[in-house]
Amino acid sequence: MSDPFELTGPAPGAAASQDARAAADVAHLEGLNDTQRAAVEATEGPVLVLAGAGTGKTRVLVSRFAHILVRGLAGPGEVLAVTFTNRAAREMRDRVAALLARSVEGWWVGTFHALGARILRAHAEAVGLTPNFTILDEDDQLRLVKQFIEAHGIDEKRLPARAVLGIIQRWKDRGLTPDRVSDAEGADAGGGRVLALYSDYQDRLKTVNAADFGDLLLHTLTLFQDHPEVLAGYQRRFRYILVDEYQDTNVAQYLWLRFLAQAHRNLCCVGDDDQSIYSWRGAEVGNILRFEGDFPGARVVRLERNYRSTSHILGAASALIANNEGRLGKTLWTDLGTGEKVRVLGVWDGEEEARVTGEEIETLHAKGHALNEMAVLVRAGFQTREFEERLITLAVPYRVIGGPRFYERQEIRDAVAYLRVIAQPGDDLAFERIVNVPKRGLGQATLQTLHRLARADGVSLTGAARRLAGTDELRPRARKALAGLLADFERWRGLLDVMAHTELMGLVLDESGTTAMWRDNKAPDAPGRLENLRELVVALEDFEDLTGFLEHVSLVMENEASAADDKVTLMTLHGAKGLEFDTIFLPGWEEGLFPHQRALDDQGVHGLEEERRLAHVGLTRARKRAIVSFAANRRVYGRWQSAIPSRFIDELPADHIDRTAAPGLYGSAAGDGSAAPRAGGFAEDRAFFTGTRRRRQRRRARLIEDVSRQTGPGAGPAFEPGQRVFHQKFGYGKVVAADGNKLEIAFEKAGTKMVMGSFVEAV
User: Fold this and answer.
1) H-run or E-run covering 430
2) Which is catalytic among the residues 173, 215, 245, 531?
3) 638/581 same-domain check
4) What's the whole-number mean pLDDT along residues 479-490?
């Protein structure tokens, strides 16, 4: 194996020629403002660069890297540059090479996990692995955890594998091996059972020569602690360390950096405490807040000149974030002019919010504003639904970033599939999608049997299911589950004429187990999926009946078509970090939605401050125009509720905002103060989506007739009593009785069974 500490590139302190140095000075320092240049040239000792939104942090990082190389302070192999994405790592390499006007070899540039894996493979034996260890993906991790849950005799319904894995990963994010988890914390996690699972899980990973992503840092921490000679080698090697997005580091990443920076102490971390918004995935804002205490003698350089936004936008954002106590403090400024004030708009309900936003987008576009330069940033994914629907109605192209469009989301497709089977029993694609969602013991073998019978008898999968539910083709458990599902569909179908379709949707979600499935799921995105399902129930209220809604969904799904690159962007605030647009729409600024109630309940003051940082991130995405909106009424679980404007709106300074409200916002037409939906919005479009009642009735009658014909007693080949037959599963036998295509057969070895004629052959 090659020496992991062998250096590449120029030797330490190698001098460049005077001409080359002069040219490099022009290349990598030209155009930097005074503060940026100070951050670049402060090469010795610990440095924290507090880089506010739009202040050019990437340029500072790239220029600092180039500065170290052209000054001969270190070779490329002696600089450790850590990013949070592979894309950022590639960009840094490309931009540094461009500044130097030459290719560079021996880089140590990458993400925490990529660099951790590189170090770990060089010293794998020291932590009980071999260099060719496998890095497991999430599916493999879940499968392994499930094996140990079963081996420990634990009911997975009470302690789901995903929840166990989440706890284990949080421990790893904090640098805790099983022996370092405190007794109290171990006892709290699943009654002590998760810690035992963690220990078994880690032992098994080593046995199969594997690691998960958390291990890539956890094992290197163990390596550095238990093998000081290895740590000393890397400390000598890395004369300079550069870290991007330091506010997003977790505890394990922080400890990893501290180990490596102890020798030379030339650690430069670039970040913004006001943009720390990822605590839910382990980020610890305290890492950046404690920097000066953790690294005595550290220099703090504040980048406050913003090159993105106008002064009204920055004034509003700065005043808002100033309400946070847990921050180091800085004030953004710009010389781009005052621009428009931030508009704060109060509307009657979410539907009107989408309508007003759509009208503003159309108006701006008519004036030459590119759609690409407009974005709607929401706090929760379910909010995109009303905006998607409105943009579709207006024929405005849009894209959803960071996730599928509303009706393309997995949980929405599943729920709509249930509705499709209720409305159309012969919808094979929908039935196949949800026959085992949630899991009910109807796996691939059952589905193959259904398909075989459906093809043989020329019936739908539902028709085949009806026939198989009364025979012995399937195992008793699968037969019982299939019969139960069919009974559910018959019952739900019978409720169509006596129950509102919105109520029926809620009933189906509950009785099918869909609600419980996502409620019990401990994945970080599970609460958002539940919110999406609740929003789906709300969406049904815009339509007269189920058929109209399903027609609408079909139209929506076909509307992907515009190939135009100029599209409005819809995305969550979390996904928008690092992006910028000329115009930003920020809807849903209401208590409980933003700040989100779950954040307040789970984290208290810390949760509130992170929500405020998220609002700050949203405002500072805008270059020229920011429009904040809130609704007086929201539909929650299909019911209207009054909404209170977000406290963040009160924290926006009057000098930088224009506040407007829809007429009659705080009172109903009846004058009783009650909240009720206002007419308009989608009302004019409903006729197009739903069609006439007569057409729907004719279609429904045809569907019922088709299903009856498919499942009637005359379908399938005919067999006579006494006839000898062969069945692939049960072998040879004689027909005892025949009821259409359903046969009672006395098999020579399997006994008497009820089977479908489609599965037997005459012999």
Assistant:
1) helix 428-434
2) 245
3) yes
4) 90
